[in-house]
């Protein structure tokens, strides 16, 4: 740049700065008193020398030329740059101070850098707006002004000065406005609302300031800022967010929609003094001794039986912020904890304590709560800290707790004795069952003898022998044969009628295991005798457990579950009765259901063995009672 040319034409450059980039050549000639044609040639020379830049409708003095003018001003003894147009003034950067009414609190650093370079290269395109001169000058004796609009440009100029791109005495043309505080706030807000990057909370603070300074309604604010009343109301509601929520909203971690939803779901504010919060904190940390995430209010900690009688705690109980639990035999402890209301008081006024998830964070939060209480009421704070002796596990149990502990011990002892008696009764029942099974096996042997001797017995002798055998199984005679359905099949349909033995009460004889074998064989013997057959043999020789079982039976495995048990029944039908596989399976289900009709038992019942022998007995019993259901003769 030609510095000498710039010095020679300092008056022209000052006039361009004063009038602004839009100045016309004729006006410039008038302001400087120069011939218009000569002035045109001078401007062309300065453009070639890099002193000014020209664009259609714009004439701008470059930054380096501004430094030359500032130096000329200093050399000529001028406190400030060139004469400004009416209503305007030239100010150095240090003469302008930030006002309290600018709603914008956050500035993008990268955008500021871009704006700084633009101002350095092309000059200041839009003037700053300031209020009238302050009452007192600064330390240099220069007048100062409060900024109304243009804080980003002011910050960009300050950054350029700090980085050496502009001189300290860079002249800034400002528009001077004589406005009140409320007008200042409105002007600053309107200027920033035109920008899309103003944060929601910054808008909310600005709207709130307008309401408080002017006494405006939300409708009046909406009218002045050209927004809907609903928009203003929703922005103002954001001021009710917690500090944590406000921080998240500013950082973009929470949307405005999420913030409004959080406000809608937030419980009503809970009033609590600093001492109340200290007592609540002591009770809550006693119930939640280890800091962790997502602690809740409902936990209760152990306490002395007289804890609820302490005045500070009793006051919170009466206001529904603390509750106690009386000891029970299952939980023999006096317990105390915060209610939902008490927890909300902590969450609203001692958020750091509730959210602390480390020991150090909790200690710091607890110290803050303690300090606040001490500052508010020293005596009450000291009394509150003394409550620690009533919280936690007491050294001695209260009489109520000790009585409940003794009662629980007595109940446990009685329960153990009852269980011992129950096990003894089970053992007796099992012994009786084993004895009955042994008797039934003996009866089976005697039935075989009766089958061999029966043809030689007359009716009376046969009846006596027959009744003796049945009664030895535990049934009460006299007995008779009746034609009945033995029960329902698995589809809940009546099974075909057949002859069954009925006791003196008219009830059909039912049994399981060896008793089942014995009853069915006696029934067969009775039918054969009634038909006058010479051979009253009761049918297949059914194998029962003994030390003389064949090797083939020893090798057979017992069923392990209900499915295998049914398969064993079906296998008996196939192997010993010649039944086809599909029919064998169907008959197995029917025989299984018939066998346990009225027993009210399920597979695995301890009254039955559920072994291979039981499965064979069930199949053989059905084959003897319902031979007509078999599609083939017995093998």
From TrEMBL:
Q: Which GO terms describe its biological process?
A: chromosome segregation
Q: Which GO terms describe its molecular function?
A: DNA binding
Domain ParB-like N-terminal residues, every copy: 89-193
InterPro entries per record: Chromosome_partition/occlusion, HTH_ParB/Spo0J, ParB/RepB/Spo0J, ParB/Sulfiredoxin_sf, ParB_N, WH-like_DNA-bd_sf, WH_DNA-bd_sf
- Stretches that traverse the bilayer: none
What superkingdom heads the lineage? Bacteria
Please tell me one Gene Ontology term that the record gives under cellular component. Answer: chromosome
Q: Which family does it belong to?
A: Belongs to the ParB family.
Q: Which NCBIfam families match?
A: parB_part
Q: What is this protein called?
A: ParB-like N-terminal domain-containing protein
């Amino acid at each position: 740049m030609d510095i000498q040319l710039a010095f020679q034409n300092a008056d022209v450059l000052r006039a361009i700065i004063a009038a602004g980039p839009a100045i016309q050549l004729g006006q410039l000639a008038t302001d400087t008193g120069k011939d218009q044609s000569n002035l045109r040639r001078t401007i062309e020379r300065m453009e070639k020398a890099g002193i000014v830049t020209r664009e259609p409708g714009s004439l701008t003095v470059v930054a380096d030329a501004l430094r030359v003018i500032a130096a000329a001003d200093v050399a000529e003894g001028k406190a400030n740059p060139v004469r400004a147009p009416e209503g305007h003034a030239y100010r150095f950067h240090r003469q302008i101070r930030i006002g309290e009414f600018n709603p914008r609190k956050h500035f993008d650093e990268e955008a500021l850098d871009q704006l700084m370079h633009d101002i350095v290269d092309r000059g200041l395109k839009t003037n700053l707006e300031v209020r009238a001169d302050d009452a007192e000058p600064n330390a240099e004796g220069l007048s100062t002004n409060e900024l109304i609009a243009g804080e980003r440009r002011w910050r960009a100029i300050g950054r350029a000065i700090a980085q050496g791109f502009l001189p300290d005495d860079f002249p800034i043309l400002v528009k001077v406005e004589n406005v009140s505080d409320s007008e200042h706030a409105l002007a600053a807000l309107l200027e920033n609302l035109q920008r899309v990057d103003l944060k929601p909370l910054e808008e909310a603070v600005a709207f709130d300031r307008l309401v408080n300074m002017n006494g405006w309604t939300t409708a009046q604010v909406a009218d002045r800022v050209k927004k809907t009343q609903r928009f203003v109301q929703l922005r103002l509601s954001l001021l009710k967010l917690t500090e944590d929520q406000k921080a998240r909203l500013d950082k973009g971690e929470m949307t405005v929609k999420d913030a409004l939803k959080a406000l809608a779901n937030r419980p009503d504010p809970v009033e609590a003094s600093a001492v109340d919060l200290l007592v609540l904190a002591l009770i809550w940390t006693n119930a939640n001794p280890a800091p962790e995430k997502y602690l809740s209010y409902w936990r209760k900690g152990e306490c002395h039986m007289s804890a609820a009688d302490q005045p500070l705690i009793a006051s919170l109980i009466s206001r529904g912020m603390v509750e106690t639990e009386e000891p029970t035999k299952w939980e023999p402890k006096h317990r105390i904890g915060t209610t939902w209301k008490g927890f909300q008081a902590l969450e609203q006024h001692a958020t750091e304590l509730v959210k602390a998830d480390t020991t150090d964070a909790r200690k710091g939060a607890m110290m803050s709560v303690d300090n606040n209480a001490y500052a508010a009421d020293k005596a009450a704070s000291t009394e509150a800290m003394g409550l620690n002796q009533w919280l936690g596990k007491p050294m001695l149990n209260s009489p109520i707790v000790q009585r409940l502990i003794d009662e629980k011990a007595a109940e446990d002892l009685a329960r153990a004795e009852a269980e011992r008696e129950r096990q003894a009764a089970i053992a007796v029942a099992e012994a009786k069952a084993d004895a009955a099974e042994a008797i039934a096996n003996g009866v089976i042997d005697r039935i075989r003898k009766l089958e061999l001797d029966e043809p030689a017995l007359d009716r009376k002798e046969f009846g006596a022998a027959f009744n003796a055998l049945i009664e030895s199984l535990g049934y009460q005679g006299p007995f008779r044969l009746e034609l009945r359905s033995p029960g329902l099949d698995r589809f809940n349909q009546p099974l075909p009628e057949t002859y069954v033995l009925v006791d003196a009460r008219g009830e059909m004889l039912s049994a399981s295991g060896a008793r089942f074998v014995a009853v069915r064989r006696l029934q067969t013997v009775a039918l054969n005798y009634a038909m006058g057959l010479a051979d009253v043999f009761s049918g297949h020789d059914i194998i029962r457990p003994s030390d003389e079982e064949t090797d083939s039976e020893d090798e057979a495995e017992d069923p392990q579950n209900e499915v295998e048990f049914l398969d064993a029944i079906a296998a008996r039908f196939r192997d010993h009765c010649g039944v086809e596989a599909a029919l064998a399976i169907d008959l197995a289900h029917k025989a299984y259901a018939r066998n346990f009709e009225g027993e009210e038992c399920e597979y695995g019942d301890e009254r039955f063995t559920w072994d291979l022998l039981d499965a064979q007995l069930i199949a053989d019993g059905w084959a003897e009672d319902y031979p007509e259901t078999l599609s083939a003769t017995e093998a």
